Structures are given as C-alpha cells and as structure tokens.
Amino acid sequence: MYESEYRLALENAGYSGFRLVLYQAEQAIKAAAENTGLQFTVDFNLGALNMLYLGDMMNDLSYRIRPFEIVPGSTNRVVDEVVDSFADFLENRRRFEILEWLPRPAASLVAQSRRLKGFLNVTGKVLDHLYSASFVEEMRRAQERIGALEVDHTRVKPVVKIVGEFWAQLTEGDGNFNMFAFLEREGAQVHIESISGWIDYLLYQSRKGMEARKGLEYRHNDARWWELGKIAANRWGYRRKWLLLRASERAWEYLYARTARHLGGITPPLVRQRELARLAHPFYHSLARGGEGHLEVGKNVYYTTNKLCHMVLALKPFGCMPSSQSDGVQSAVVNRFPEMTFLPIETSGEGEINAYSRVQMALGEARARARTEFEAALGSTGHSLDAIREFAGAHRRLRSPFYPFPRRQGVAGAAANFVMHVGRVMDGRERMARLPGER
Amino acid sequence: MKALETNAQPDGDANGGPGRMQGRLRFLVGFDVGSTTVKAVAVESAGGQIVWRDYRRHDTRQAEMLLEFLGRMEREAGVAAGNSRVFITGTGGSKLAGPIGARFVQEVNAVALAVEKLHPEVNSVIELGGQDAKILLFKRDGLGRRKKFASMNDKCAGGTGAVIDKIAAKLGISADCLQSQGYRGITTHPVAGKCGVFAETDINSLQKLGVPAGELMASLFDAIVLQNLTVLTRGHTLSPEVLLLGGPNAFIPGMREAWQHKIPQLWQERGVQLPDGAAAEDLIRVPDDALYYGAFGAIEFGRAEDELSGLYTGRGGLESLIGAHRGQGFEDAGGHGLCASDEERRAFERRYQQPAFQPPAFPKGERVEAFLGIDGGSTSTKAVLLSTHGELLAKAYQLSKGNPIQDTIEVLARLRTQVEEDGAHLLILGVGTTGYAKDVLRQVFQADVAVVETVAHAESAKHFFADPHVIVDVGGQDIKIILLRDGAVRDFKLNTQCSAGNGYFLQSTAEGLGIPVENYAEAAFSARAMPTFGYGCAVFLQSDIVNFQRQGWRAHEILAGLATVLPRNVFLHVAKVPNLPALGTRYVLQGGTQNNLAAVKAEVDFLYATFRHSGLEPEIWIHPHCGESGAIGAAIEAMRTRRAARATTFIGMDAVAAIRYRTQSDEQTRCSYCTNACLRTFLSVEGTNAAVPGESRRIVLANCEKGAAESVDELRGIQARLEAIKAANPNLVAVAAREVWRSRRPELVADPVPRRAWNQRGRQKLALQRNRGQLRIGIPRVLSMYAYAPLFSAYFESLGVAAENIVYSSVTSGEMYRSGSSRGSIDPCYPSKIAIAHVHDLLFKQHPRTPLDLILFPMFDVLATRLENTRASNGCPTASITPETVEAAFTKETDLFSERGIRYIHPLVNLSNRRLLARQLHQALESVLGLGEHENARAVEVGFRELERFEADLRRRGREVLDQVEREGRLAIVLLGRPYHHDPGINHGIMEEIQKLGYPILSQSTLPMDGDLLERLFGAELREGTIRSALEISDVWRTAFSANSNQKLWAAKFVARHPNLVAVEFSSFKCGHDAPIYSVVEQIMQCSGTPYFGFKDMDENRPANSIKLRVETMDYFLKRYRQEKFGAGARPAEEEEVDAAVC
Fold this sequence. Notes:
- Chain A is mainly alpha-helical.
- Helix content of chain A is 58%, strand content 5%.
- Chain A has helices at 3-12, 42-65, 74-92, 98-101, 104-112, 114-131, 133-147, 166-170, 179-185, 195-212, 228-262, 273-280, 295-305, 321-336, 352-381, 385-394, 414-427; strands at 159-164, 189-191, 311-317, 342-347.
- In chain A, α14 links the parallel β3 (311-317) and β4.
- Chain A starts with a helix and ends in a 12-residue tail after the last helix.
- In chain B, the strands form 9 sheets. A 5-stranded mixed sheet of chain B has the order 3-2-1-4-5, sandwiched between helices.
- Chain B contains 41 helices and 35 strands.
- By secondary structure, chain B is of the alpha/beta class.
- Chain B is 44% helix and 16% strand.
- Chains A and B meet through α1, α14 and α15 of A and α5, β8, β29, α31 and α33 of B.
C-alpha cells in the first residue's frame, strides 16, 4: 500500500536509483519479482510464515516470563539464543524436493509432468515445513532451554494489554517510546499483540466483506429462476471462495495454537475474530475499512470484560487516522464499561515525557487493582505469602516458566492465580500440574 | 498554607500506626520541579505540621535550584540525610530524584492525591502550568467507585502559561501588571489559543488595528479556556465543584474570571445540576496555596509508601550530578561545534561576513534625491533611502514598539537626520511600503506603492545578485522561501501555521540565557561541542533546552546547537522541501536573522550537506543588508513607479515630523455591514497636508473591503464593484457549495400506499409509509455530503419525503465550531472535528425550531469515481469513521439523541456499487420509511441520476468558464482539494479572495470532461501508450486507492496540461491521504511549468495575514505569468479596474 510513498521518499531524498523490493502480502506465495536479488519461492514464503509464528511466539513468551525471572537478564539471554537457533534451523534445513524424496522410477515419471511435479513439490514442501519431525524437534529443544529458566510467580504485576495501530503496537523502539520496556521497569506485565492476529483479522474481514456482498457479485447476475445451471454456478462460485477463506482462517488459527503448544503452552490462542467484531460493532462498524478497523475497540472490550488485564494501553503514531478515530469511539466505550482502565497514547517525535506521565498515572490505578486482587486471592488461600513462597521454593516445577497453573474466572494477575493454585495444592484440594513434555 | 496544614494527617495515621523508623524519620518533604518553578513543602512526619515551604522560578536551572532549596531546608528546618523522606513530582522531577534518594511521583497522580485529600467535594481540577495543562475529573462509576480521568497536553504547549508569558512579553505587560489583569467586562476578540504562535499572529493583527493590550490579554484568556475546554476535557463535562490550580490560575485574576465565565455556560447548556442555592461562579475557585498542591500530593503519595521509600541521602549526589556533568566523553554525546577549527571559522567569516555599511557623505548644501522604502514588519520597522542609481544611501531599523505609524515616524526621522545632519537637503522622489503594515503606512504617508513582502524581497535580492534561484528570507516571525526562475517568482513557501525556526526564537532564547542577540554568533562559534536537537515546534525545543542544561550543556553550546536547528526547521519543517538541489543552485540568504553568522554557518553547512550527493555545488550569497532587504525592495518598486513618470504622492518629510494621529477602536467603530460585525479601527491623521494646517483625514482599517466604507452609499458602490467582478469571474467552488444542498425535485418512485394491511408487520409498514410526508430528516452539512448530498436528497424526495423536511445543519462558522465542538474527545482534522459541531447544531438549534425525527450521517466507505484503472476509490478513514465518533460524543454521558426522540442512523455506504448501496440503505432505513426493496432500488437509481445531473451541470459551467478564459487569454484558478474544501467555513473564503482579484475559480469536482477537451489534453499520451485512458493517473501515482486523492491528482494533471489554468492546492492539517501526494502534485506542476500555490495544514485557525500575503503574491506573479504566456496585450482594461477596486 505504501510502495509509492517509499519510492517517492527515496527519490526526494536524492536516491532515485535505490532498489526497492516489493513483497505483497495479499499475493503471498504468488509474489514474484524480476531481478530483485531475492527469490520469492515456495520455500521462501513458507519460511516467512514459520518465521511469523515463531517470532510472535518468542516475543509473547519473553514478555510473559521476563517480569517474573529470578535471575535478571536470564530471559533475554535464553530467548536470544533460541531465536538464533531457530534462524539457523530455518536457514539451513534441508529443502524438500519431490524428486529427491520419491524412489527413482517414480521420480523419473513425475519429472515428465511439470504440473504434477509442481503440485507434488508444493504439497510436500507445505507438509514438510509444518509437520516434519525436525521442525517439531527444534521447537522441543527451544522449549527445553526456555523451560530451564526459573521464575517467581508470586510477584504482583498489573497486567497491561497493548493494542493500537499495527506498527506501534508491535514495534518496541523509538516508534512507541520504548513503551514495553518502560512498563516493565514500572513493574507491569505486558501482554503484547501478534502479527498472526492481524493476519487472522485480514482473513476474517475478507470473508465478512464477501458475506455482505453475497448475491451482488455473481458470475451470472442476470440468472432467471429457471436457469438452474447458472444459479448453481453462482452459488458454487460464492461457496467455494467462502470455504477457501474459512479454511484459511481455521488453518491459520490451528497452526498458531500448535506452535504455542510446542513452545511451552503458556501463550494463549488467537482471539476469535468473530467475538472481537461482535463486541466492537455497537461502537465501531465491524466492516469499516482502514487501519485496525474495529480491532482496538473489540480488544479493549474483550480483555476488560473477560478480566484478562488490569489496563488496556493503545499505542498509535501521531495522526494515524483510523486509530485516532478509534480513540474517539473509545470515550463512549469507557463510559459503558466502568471497570475499564483504558489509555490511548499517540507517539511522535515529541511528547515522550508526557506519554510516560500519563501511562504512570493509569498504571497507578492498574497497580492498585492488581494489588487488591492479589490480596483477596491470598486471603482466600488461608496461607501467608511467605508460606506459599516457601512451598514454591521447595518445588522446582512451580518455578518453571511453563508451569500451567489454572487461570480463575475474573482474576487477571499471574500472582493472584498462582497463589490460589498453590494454596489449593498445599491444602491438597488440587494436584500439582505437569510441565510440558513431562511424563 | 493553612489549608494544607489543617487537613494533613500524621504519617502514622496514614499507615495505620506509627512506623518502625518513625523515631528518626522526622520529616516528609515534597518537591514540585516544574518547567518554570520549583515548589517545596516540608512537613513533620508525626504531626503533619508544615515546617518549611518556598516557591521560586528556576530560570531553567532546575538542579541548582533544587540544591539551593535543600541547603536552606537543612539549615532552616533541620532536614538531613537519614531523617527525612523526599518525594518529587513535576516535569523536571524524574531525573533529579535518584541522586538524593527521593522517589519520583507522577505529577497528575500527585495533584489528584492532594485534591482527594483536601477537597473531597471537588469533581474537576484544572491545572495550568508553565508548559503543561492538566484536567482531572473524578467520577463515580456504575460500581460506586470514584474513578479518575486525566488529560494532559502532550504535543503542544498551546493553552498553557507559556502562551500567556509569550504574549505578555510581546505586549510589554510586566508580571505585576499581569497580576491585576482582569477579564470581566472587557471586550474580547477572536484569538487562537491553540498555539502560542497562532495566538501571536492574531494578536499582531489586532494590535495593528489598535486594540488595547488589556483587551488582547482578556481575549487570550478566553482562547486558552476554550482551547482547554475543547481539547483537554476529551468531551467530558467538568462537574462542579471545579478547582483551579497552577501559577496562571493562582496569580492572574483574569484567568480565573475567564473560567468562571465559560464553565457555567457549559453547565447551562448541558443541564448540569448545581447544589441548591449555590452560585455557579462560587463553584469554580482557586484554593489557598494553589501552587503547592503538587508538592503536597507528593507527600501524600509518600505516606502510603513503605518507610524506606524516598529516604533522603543528602545533597552530595545532586552536587556530583551538577559538577560531574561534563565528564570524559561527555562532548562526544553531542555533535562537534559549528566550526571544527579557528581556521575554518576565519575562512568562513572571510567569505560570508558582510562589511559594515558605510554611508556616503552628504556635504552641506547638497540636494540628496532618494527613493524611500519602508518595511513595516511584524517585529520591527525598517526604512532605507536609495539613490537614483539604486545605491543605498541610508538605513534605519527599530524594534516594534507596538504601533507601526509611530515606529515609522521615528525611523524616518532618523533617516532624515543621517542625511541632513551636516546640512544636506533630502528630497524624496518616491516611496514604497511593504510588510504587514504596508497598507496602513501607504495610506498614512501617502506612499506611491505598497508592495507585497515576497515581491519586495525578491526584487531586493535581484538588485544585488544575478539570477538567484532561491531566496531564503528568515525574519523575526516570518520565514519565506521564494523560488525564482529566470528572475521571476515562480513559487514561495511561507510559515503559515508555525513559526518554528524564526529569528525571534533564537533571539529570545539567547537573551533568556543571558547573551545579547548581537553576541549570539560569537558565543555559538566558541562552542567546541554542542547538544543535538531535534527540530520542530519551538515550544518543545524550549523543553529540550531545559533538558540539555540539566545534562550540563552550557549556554554557548546550546546556542550553537539551536543554530543548527534553524536550517532544518526552515527547509524541512516549514518549507517541507526534502530535495533542495531540485529548487536550484543559487541561494540568497536574507532577512534580519541572517545577520547572525552562526545561523548562516549552519545554513551553509546544511546546504552543502544536502547537495553532497547531487553532483551539484550550491552558490550561497548573503544579502549585504539582510535586515533591510524588504525595505530596499519597496524602494526599488518606488523607483520603478517613478520611471513610469508618476510624481510622488508622499506627504514629505516635514509633514511626517508634524503628523498627529488618533486611533479609535470600540463599539462605535464596529462594522454593521454584515453579520460578522468586526471591530474596525478609525485612524484620524492630522498634519499630512502642510497647505491646510489642522486638516484631518480619516482612514478606516477593516478586515474586508466592505468594512472600509464609511457610509451606506459608499458601501453600495463597493458592493456594486465587487458584484461586477464576481459576475465576470464565476466562482464554481462557491456555486458547488451552494447548489449541492438544493432540492432535486425528482420523480416520485415510492410504492403506492396500500389502503390496509393484514398483519402487524404490514400495519407498521403502512404507518411508516403514510408518515413519510411528515418525516423530518437532519443531515450534517459536512465532509462527503459536499459531493453526495444530491444523491441523498433525491433518494428521499423520490420516496415521498418532503424537500423542506430534509434539514441540513447550518453553514460551518467559527461561532458554530466554538459552541458545538467541546464534546469531542480527539483532535483529528478540522473537517472531521467540525462534524460534532454540525450534529450539535442539528440537535440544539434545528431540532428545537421544528423537531427532527432522525439524523442521517452516512459512513462513506467507498466513493463513486469517474477515473479509470485505479486500485480502489476508498473514502478517507477519518471521514468515514467520523459518524461513529460523533455518536460516541453525544451518547457517552447521556444519550442526547434518544432524550430528544431522534434516531441517529449512520450506515456504512459504498457508492461505487449501486446494488450494495441499495442493500445498505434498505437495511438502515427500512424501519424508518417502511421501505420496500424495489422502491428502494428505484430511489437509489434516481439518486444517482440526480447526482449525475448535478455534476454534469457543474462541469458544463466549468466548460463555459474554460472557453471564456481561452477566448480572452486569461487565467482561471483550479482548487485542488477535497469536496469538503468547498465548505466556506473550511476554505476560509480564500477562493473568494482570489476571485475578487479577477480570476474565475474552478475545482477538482467542476472540471469539464468533454471528449474533445480530453482529447486535446491527453490525446497524445493516449496514442503514445503512456496511459490507457484520459481518466487515469497510473502514470503519476500507482498507489491509487484513495478516491479524493485520485481525483486531486487527475485534476492536477488536467491543470498542468491546460495553458489557461493554474492550481491552488488545499489540504487540511493531519490529512494522512494528502501528505503522500504533496510532492506528486508539485512535480506534476513543475514538469509543465504551471504555477502552483499551496495552502497546507489548514484548520480552524484562519491566518488572515498569511492568506492576504499569499493571495497578493499570487496575484503579482500571475499577472506577470499571464503577460509572459499570452503577451502584453492580454491584459484587458476591465482588469485594471479590478486592481483599482481591490487596492
């Protein structure tokens, strides 16, 4: 979408011959370019998809583990190592080639048909990328290395859910005032967004847009009632596209959840897009185009009403049109949901100090809420915090970042959920859970 | 301080009992380190009694002032390391807390804690600080909890004490006078409070009209209150009681009174219930010790913290911080100095330093014939004398004392003295004026010619240098980049909305740092290293200065760093020219700021760096008389006039000395010729005619031509002349803006109403069908409705809704915006912001007159387009989502629609797919109109038919205009904008101003699309295969997805190919769809050499002076362009009349 702008900016800056490689998301695997220096092959595209999943997952994991790490800096160190391993693995893994995989007689038969060879090769590459034992094994190794970290889940941390404009909500750097690091320094646990969630949204919106136009864009718009063939063709044409999109959504969500499962299982699955649209629609039309559409409103309501966080922070670059409008709508949303702590921040070259001030103030409210929630949780166990810490200290499992303590309805904080669970384990009312991969 | 003391609770109480360390922790100390002052309070931990407090300005030395406070506190109160806990709040607090062991407390938190503690009855707090403005609201949520909403300014210091300081300094109002400045009963005038720079621009104009300083300050208070109410409340209502905190509220009675005046108006409008018997004004108050709330809140915060939090470690850390700022490697953190070595500096000075002016001798008895040029600028007045050969004979300069006439009298006296002090005799052959005050000066002194500033500066540069390409004129407040080709102005860029980077800023900063502006360069050149600034808003640069000082950078280094900001602000921030070599290679630097060699060095370095990769080398010249370049240009123009054999009309130097004048600007001078009722200034001048002593002339200074009339007869004459001009030069922007709302009177296509219905659903439908004739529909007159209103009005009318029952909101006006916009919670572009005011108008103005049943505000998702081969024709997301934000604004506290029995309907619509549109409208309106599917589809078709008729009619008129200008060899102006730029409230009447100068006006929506014309303009390219259709833009813009941007680019292509058309581009501030195509439009125009002028970043502020300057320059340039294009004979007699009428 911004291709022309980039070209223009380069030209205006005096770099008229600068080479710009275009990778179009909507064309995905089909994307191609001449003499680009990069080969947009099936392997490249599938590698990019895996990279997205793994990137999202490692990012999310690090924000879920780091606030509780016992040895400062250990999470970043291990995550960096794991990311390097994944990069090596993706770069050096043996590419699937159908002719190498088939027995020689079958290979020579397949080699004669270009179409068959292409079809089998692409199918094989997809399966290999997604299901090959080597990939699963690489994830297992990563899980093992991360699982070796030690955490203290009794630390009370307000949970801050990040939403906002695509780039600002994902990018940690000057573009978002280094807000995630700031929040962690201020004692918060940050729940970040994923690129996968955005792609899921695009797929969902394509399908819903199609549904809104159902019956208007048939191949045979003029079909009369007796022209059953045309009617069937119309319906099949629509249904085929619809199914393709639906299958893509399902596959996308499944693969994300599968990656999460192999990497510790503590990162939640993608939120159902239908639910976000349903929650947002009374305030922000779910088919309205541009930017993140209804997502900011939908996520704000979803995470607040499901009590998955203590505060929602929306980040957006200065002047981002749809995101600013979303903030306009949020003023009514916040009034409708009194329990909501929502703060929008526009980032630009200036105003960093003020942004921090505002975040600190909202965080004060979230912190108080997390503290109250924790004290109630601790009180409900009948144990002192020292006793719970002592118990956790005596059990290595409870110090694992992947220890799967249950999340109680209406309790957002990790510490509150953890002490409730440990208290019940101490009382013998719940059993200690197994770690992933543990027999 | 009593208020704080009596309410304070001992430390032990707050924590439920005495702490373990309480025995030795004697004090709790709260600091508020703000942007301009430090406030401190120390209380006893046990009893809560105040033992020490103070408040002082820190003059940007926050750390030093904090150290000084701590020293005194230790000596006077016994505060010591280990016996006190310290909590710091304020913008400067975070970095200073660590070194003394203190804990930082976010300032809004601190203020909120103080207010909660001391004033549980308060629901709203407004705190104005030096560069901050905060609004705090305490609200009960549905669960009975008291929730806080806070809002702060984050990108702009508009609406804060900084603006007051800036304007007070400009008006010469001392701090003491400011403390007695009132508001009640004082006449106020429209002033922009959004930004100190805008405010200054408005104040300048009003000052020149003779408005007294007291009224100007009261107007500023008014503007600041409005700015904070509209932006910072984020649409919430300030519930009583309201507490006013911060320096400006505490010290300036007028500021308090302005809040007390404005907030009750809001309460009344929103039906806020006041406590029984309470007067509204009494519910808005400044508490005692309002200054100390931040510091006290910090202490309150500390009470809830554990006992070791904020434990004071003594002053040592702070002393080290101050002393050790400049450790090894410190300077590496910034950039190297302006000059790497003394040798480089000497070489630079040899090349660029201008020799001091050496006036010629004027022997006794010599008759010195000269042309006089006067530049009445925004911050100073300059005058020069030029010999008949164009040599500079004398020059004089004076910083403005507030009245340009008096300034000029004094400056001319000095000029005369220079020539005549040795007995020579000065004879003035001609006089030219320029600058903001050029017209007043021309009238008072009867000068021969008033020259628009841009032209004066260009003439001056050309006088000294051969064929310059770019003139960079940086004055006190204005920045002008004038682009020339073959000696003629081809374009110019002005700082219409921002004065970042001007000379006034450098001057005031230097003086603030204790360095006179004359010594700026000397100080800056002495720096071996300097801090690296960003660029942009001057107010935030001010914050950077404070930060850099805190880090240890010294004054001369800061000045060096600021000098390097100047070229970036001039070229990148204001002029937005990323590719300077494209403008040309010969640069002239002029304007008063260029007398500062540090600024020149920074500009020279910047230019060379920019050219480095271009393969070109810039030639940079410094004007020999930087500060007087405008005055020299005016004198040159006077010389040109003289050569046209006209005798001077100047009143003469003797008369100047004898001049007496009196200004009157009050209710008696208020104009009554239109509803704007502007305040005029009547100037009575005596002594201008030596022949008739005592004769008095009256000069009327007004905002428009009509205002200049003193009698109804005179007014009629002026109006008749204007009407004649308008008739000869149609303004299709105005026509489109008027006609688009007209009833279409289409055919009726509604289903026949059945006599009876057989079931409940049918009966409901029948009732709705029967009601259609009475149904009243309100539609906001905004955004895409300026293009598609005919479609909707025809749609409704064809279904049986009476034309008179389709009610549009009032036409956009400043008054409407001010009264209706305060419910908005965000700050998008003005065309979107104004939508809230329009719906407010429908609810609170139109509905009470005759009740409305529904308000329709469609969300335009996809727009209709005639262009071909584009990727999409999407609407702008800001515009399309606006109906949702409007709904939020009117339903968040109470549902103002349902309270009035009005349905608010805002369907998402797609105008590029008629069947989808029909479905969308049917879904939205079925339950309102009892709508059948088929009649709905027919009505949509009727709507499109009427829309096409409307558009075709405009294009037909456009063709007529085009044919006319082609026949007459004249020029027409095409507005390149978006449909809502037709709105006179958004385009600020600029096109009308241009029309009055004798140019027909078209817009992107009114350009004809006749086949023969398209063939003439695009045929060659079609045949070459560059484009596949005349209606395509893929050759200039591949990312063609935004409908209005696409249309603008196509219109630009059209204009660039037509010899009789020139373009004026409009763009609103924050327009994300326009920004990427600015340079595309510019390139299209440059390729064909078509004149192109831009009004970018337009918003609610109407920069009248800047508009005037641009329009006058445009006119000057276009006249020459036309003569060049169509020959000398192209100027018909009636156009001369137009000039006469306008001048």
